Prior knowledge:
Layout: E1 3-7, H1 15-23, E2 27-31, H2 34-37, E3 42-45, H3 51-60, H4 64-73, E4 78-81, H5 83-86, E5 91-92, E6 98-99, E7 106-110, E8 122-130, E9 144-150, E10 152-156, E11 162-166, E12 172-178, E13 181-184, H6 192-203
Amino acid sequence: MKTVAIIDYGMSNLDSVVRAVSELGRKQVVTDKYTEIENADSIILPGVGTFHEGMANLHKLELVEPLTDLVLKQGMPCLGICLGMQLLATCGLEFGESKGLDWIKGTVTPLKATKKDERIPHVGWNEVRYRNPWPFFEGVPQNNDFYFVHSFHFVVDNEIDIIATTPYCGEFASVIGRGNIFGVQFHPEKSQKIGFKILENYLSL
Length: 205
């Protein structure tokens, strides 16, 4: 059975992600050690909090360079969730500019309301519209709602990296992907059965 490494870098409550993967019957290891991550078959990078602190923690754990080698050069699948998705960017603008992992080119910028009823942080259920058929969305109907909690969003440099969008604050990329690298701004582990289906699809790639 394949193993997924859920990276613990001190930026999220891992319980819901661990529980979701367990309910899907998948083998997992929760770790901050590269020696355990490199022996897995795929990675989940969860996260809640600030971009700057997230990157600082990954650097303290000396994970940035080895993970970059593992994902970009060796092709291990990686899924970033919420802050984990944002850290895939070139840089983030939360509390000043900070360098990201730079696995998918782009910048993490603040959400800006375009309507009076749009509140920031964006908290709650909202629809996800995927642009083209994608294995990530197999068995997931178009325009389904997923659970969001965020104040920033990933502005990609290359539109081809956008898999799905959400109509809030104008529109933002809610799912991105390039090759073996994926990111979801919503929390699939908190999005009931349809969110679990997203995780199942990723773990089956």
